[in-house]
Design goal:
Layout (H helix, E strand, L loop, with lengths): L2 E7 L8 E7 L8 H14 L22 E2 L2 E2 L21 E5 L8 E3 L2 E2 L2 H10 L20 H11 L6 H5 L6 H12 L8 H14 L10 H5 L7 H16 L1
Parallel strand pairs: 1-5
Antiparallel strand pairs: 1-2, 3-4, 3-5, 6-7
Helix pairs in contact: 2-5, 2-6, 3-5, 5-6, 5-8, 6-8
C-alpha cells in the first residue's frame, strides 16, 4: 500500500508543533500500526532526518503505552484494542492517516507523539492501594469469601491499563473512567474496605488537581477504551464519594 501520513511533530513541551506530511510506500496489510511507523522511521533516519518519537513497550496490548490518536480516534478505528494491535489491513491503498498525540492539559507533550501521563500515576499514589499485614501472620486472600459477581466486577475494573484513551476521547478530557476503575477494583472487595473512605476522597481530589475535566456522561470513554471498562464504575465511584463525604 501507498499511504500519506500526516503526523504531529513537536520538539518539546515548550515548542510550537505542527502537522508534517510523509508519503510511505510498501506497507503490508499484516503490519501492525507501530511496525508501519518503524518503517517510516527507518526511512527518515536513512535520509538524515529525526525519527518520529512515539511511546511503546510490550506491543501486546498489555501496557497501554502505545497511545496514539489515529484519524481522530484513540487507538484507531478498531474496538477493544490498543494501537499496537491495530493492523494496516484496516486501511486502504491511497489513504491519508492523521496521527496525533493524546490531547489533554494533564497529558503534556514530551516530544512528537509521546505525552507525559504521570498524572495517572499520581492519582494511583493518592489512594490506589490496600493495607497488607506483613508481620508474618498474613492471611491468604483466597480464604476470604467473596461473591462471584463482586469478584468478577472487581477484575473487570482492574483490567484498566491506564492508557488514557478515555481522557483523549472525552470532550472535557475527564479521567473519571480511569479513576473510577481504580476505585472500584478495591471498593468491591473486603480487602479494600480499610482505606475505602480516604481512598476515593484522595483520588478524586488528586484527579481534580491534575487538571482533568468533569464527566458529562457522553459515554465516549467506554466506547474507546481498549479494555471495555464500563461506565458503571463512574456511578459506583460517585456513590463511594458521596458516602465518604458524609462520613467525613
Amino acid at each position: 500500500m501507498k499511504l500519506t501520513l500526516k503526523i504531529w511533530r513537536q520538539k518539546d513541551a515548550n515548542s510550537k508543533g505542527s502537522m508534517q506530511t510523509y508519503p510511505i510506500d510498501g506497507v503490508d496489510g499484516d503490519m501492525s500500526f507501530l511496525e508501519m511507523l518503524d518503517v517510516l522511521n527507518d526511512g527518515l533516519i536513512n535520509q538524515g532526518e529525526d525519527p518520529v518519537v512515539f511511546d511503546h513497550d510490550c506491543r501486546e496490548g498489555i501496557c497501554g503505552a502505545c497511545s496514539l490518536m489515529i484519524n481522530g480516534e484513540p487507538h484507531g478505528p478498531d474496538r477493544l484494542i490498543t494501537t499496537c494491535q491495530l493492523h494496516m489491513r484496516r486501511f486502504n491503498d491511497g489513504d491519508t492517516i492523521v496521527i496525533e498525540p493524546f490531547r489533554a492539559k494533564a497529558f503534556p507533550v514530551i516530544k512528537d507523539l509521546m505525552v507525559d501521563r504521570s498524572s495517572f500515576e499520581r492519582i494511583q499514589h493518592a489512594g490506589g492501594y490496600i493495607s497488607v499485614n506483613t508481620s508474618g501472620n498474613t492471611i491468604d486472600a483466597n480464604a476470604i469469601p467473596i461473591e462471584k459477581e463482586d469478584a468478577d466486577a472487581s477484575f473487570n475494573a482492574a483490567a484498566c491499563i491506564g492508557c488514557g484513551a478515555c481522557v483523549a476521547a472525552c470532550k472535557n478530557a475527564s479521567a473519571m473512567l480511569f479513576t473510577s476503575a481504580k476505585v472500584s477494583q478495591f471498593a468491591l472487595l473486603p480487602q479494600g474496605k480499610v482505606e475505602a473512605t480516604r481512598r476515593v476522597l484522595n483520588m478524586v481530589e488528586q484527579m481534580d488537581k491534575e487538571g482533568f475535566g468533569n464527566c458529562t456522561n457522553t459515554g465516549a470513554c467506554e466506547v474507546e477504551c481498549p479494555k471495555g471498562i464500563s461506565l458503571e464504575n463512574i456511578a459506583r465511584m460517585n456513590r463511594e464519594y458521596l458516602s465518604a463525604s458524609l462520613k467525613g
